[in-house]
Amino acid sequence: MGMDIHAFLAVIWFGLLGLVLMLYVVLDGFDLGVGMITLTSRNERHRGIMMATLGSIWDGNETWLVLLGGALFGAFPLAYGAILHALYIPIMAMIFGLMFRAVAFEFRENAHRKRAWDIAFGFGSLLAALAQGFALGALISGLPIHDGQFSGSVFSWFSPFSVLVAIGVAAGYMLLGATYLHVKTVGLLQAGSRRIALWAAWVTVLLGLAVSIWTPIKIPAIAAKWFGTGVSPLLILPLIAGLSFLLLLRSLHRRQESAPFGWSIVIFIMSLLGLAASLFPYMALPGVNLYTAAAPSNTLVFMLTGIGLLIPIMLVYNAHQYMVFRGKITDPDYGQH
Question: Which domains does the chain have, with CATH numbers?
Fold first, then answer.
């Protein structure tokens, strides 16, 4: 009976981590996407407006990453140790990228020559996005983990598959960022965001299809889960994603303001649900099972109390931020500290 309770708690925490990851990817995803898009603009005022759209929300978006790391450490300490050991380089690269962004964001405001800080902000965003993609690609394709210990080399995360996933993640974040800017800006900047969104949408979907085809070929266990029992109910996820892509294209061509951002979010949610379904019950393929990697039951229950209170507070805080700072931004000084 105790083992059944422990397994149930492990599944609950798998779901909670998935929820926190989804919130981070969507919220900080468009944040990083806007940062990458600043690299495409030669207009300093436009770059200022892009950064101003994030001025009061970017730090709140990144709190979900902190919560994700802390929850993974507490709920699945064996997975935390093995996965972070295997992904040391991409995780450190992500942290450095986020640091570059934060420093550039604050220093740019008072700098007389802003171009260097603009570049630091853009490349920090790109570095963080690519690092997350490499980490994701490594988790999907499998890490050399045996008996809960990482047994590979420092570059085990790097492969042609993880390169493809990394580029796809960066393009997907640019899609989120461009559709977010489409909501927040006007005029030439909004028109440019719409063009970037169309380009990023096609690149994201084409790379997503390539990854979706390559993954079951590369990993038979995932192929069996999706195609081994006839028509799998999981196929509803890519169908919804495909329909959302078509609706995204239609909304962009019709120049609807908010709909493209909404459809982009739906595409990401369906992709993350498909990823969770493919990996379950593993935290990382092939050797980190969530049941054996989970902390003792009393620890999981104790953490549920704290996290159960914290997540609603963070959701209300984020929602309040977006309500207070909703609307268009045309002045690059708006929203700066």
Answer: 2-324 (1.20.1630.10)
